[in-house]
Amino acid sequence: MDKIWLKRYPTGVPETIDPDRFNSLVDIFEQSIQQYGDKVAFINMDTEMTFNELDVLSRHFAAFLQQRGLKKGDAFAIMMPNLLQYPVALFGALRAGLTVVNVNPLYTPRELKHQLVDANVKAIVILENFAHTLQKVEDCVPVEQVFVTAIGDLLPAPKRWLVNAVVRHVKKMVPAYQLQHTTSFRASLKQGEKFSYQRPEIMGDDLAFLQYTGGTTGLAKGAMLSHRNMVANLEMVSALVAPLVNDGEETVVTALPLYHIFALTANCLTFLKHGGQNLLITNPRDMKGFVKELNKYPFSIIAGVNTLFNGLLNTEGFKDLDFSHLKIALGGGMAVQRAVAENWQRVTKSRLLEGYGLTECSPVVTVNPTDIEEYNGTIGLPLPSTDVRVVDTETGEVLPQGEAGELQVKGPQVMVGYLNRPDETAQVMKDGWFATGDIGVMDSDGFFRIVDRKKDMILVSGFNVYPNEIEDVIAGHPKVLEVAAVGVPHDASGEQVKLFVVRKDASLTEKELIQYARENLTGYKVPKLVEFRDELPKTNVGKILRRELRDEEMAKIEGKAD
What we know:
Blueprint: H1 25-36, E1 40-44, E2 47-50, H2 51-67, E3 75-79, H3 85-95, E4 99-102, H4 109-118, E5 121-127, H5 131-135, E6 145-149, H6 159-170, E7 182-184, H7 185-192, E8 207-213, E9 221-226, H8 227-241, E10 251-254, H9 261-273, E11 277-280, H10 287-296, E12 301-304, H11 306-313, E13 328-331, H12 338-348, E14 352-357, E15 364-367, E16 381-382, E17 387-391, E18 405-410, E19 417-418, H13 422-428, E20 429-430, E21 433-442, E22 448-453, E23 458-460, E24 463-465, H14 467-475, E25 480-490, E26 494-503, H15 510-520, E27 529-532, H16 546-561
Parallel strand pairs: 1-11, 3-4, 3-5, 4-8, 5-6, 6-7, 10-11, 10-12, 12-13, 13-14, 26-27
Antiparallel strand pairs: 1-2, 8-9, 9-19, 14-15, 15-16, 17-18, 18-21, 20-21, 21-22, 23-24, 25-26
Helix pairs in contact: 2-3, 2-7, 8-9, 11-12
């Protein structure tokens, strides 16, 4: 396979990495503790935690988990937003040799039950704000031990008492719950001091994470990510950012939740390896509060999704921040829109680099090189030791450069498979190649561009219309805040394009928007319908749910037909 993208790698980025340089994430963690002991690893709510402090607390937690009878390979769930407790629980569980199952705290009881049963979770650490959800399913899940924590638990006294009291009694953010067999997280750390930690032998093939994906269509599947998968992806991302990063000196803004694989790898694990400090944002939806936090720290790296960057750019005070230290802004999780990227560069004087990944690939596959001058509309180049090809969706034949087809990925970061789903694994993995379900194209320099998801494509009179392209154009209108494009059935053309738009300026009309689209898009791509909304449905990380909008439209049509 001709890897034409290698010729475009910036100076200093290697063509390959060694996925076996470390046996496990625990090896990397221990190395960072030795190197960066007294440096700050995490910051949350104005409280700092050094690498040494994280070492002590996670070791106590690991010892406690072992004492409680949890064995190497047991599944351990974490259900909380970005708090100092998260890295303590994460590294405690990994050091005990457990497999971590990240759980979205906003899950409904049905979703939570599915995940805990599917992964056969033995123990869970949960923020008390969400304990009522667990209560509803506790009798039908395999969980034997529950560790409950409160938002302020790792803050120093008296701040801890104050925060917890306000959350419980003033803001009333903790619904009443009754759970059997609970232990307070703080108590488990305290008791763990008494026990000695026995480091298990952890190898590359051992599972580090069961990361659930694909929950928007049917039941979520657990992607089995081994320590080798994760180490490989860390080495790849490190190879890319190393020329720009000063070890032990970077501050990375972590606004995406750590239970999401993008933030977990790109923020938490990568910069832990480089001795950076993670500024944990607990509630990024509070944009004003978020900007306040950013004002306190000279941040050098920020990773997020398009909606997060767009939200910041439209929040008062953001433009006045000090961006002189900012080296890398990395966009992933969904397409970065040109209008957002260009506005970001104008305001911050730094480039917004788009990358691409999937849960099944630990997750990063491609990233734009750090030496690009401006946004280029691509997802960048494959990472070192990563192969990407474009195949015909019908025949599976490899397509030549410039032709659109399904992207397939091969590399040491590709998952072991889906837990207990050999059939579904076989559907997406053949001869080491993982079929992404994304339609893409490669240019003459080896840059890839996502044209769209296979299933999101709109077919207008036999022409393929890709929502990403439409959304990208419409987002460029100065009065548009957010946009989603979906295909809705049409008698004459099969489907037509419908827009769902959140206005930045209330004066924006349907007519004005369609005229703008006509000026920028070929006739068959021009939206025929526009619906203005106050907000668009999103996933927990801010990805717009096109599918939900389409389902709403279909339900309306079916209702009329009845």
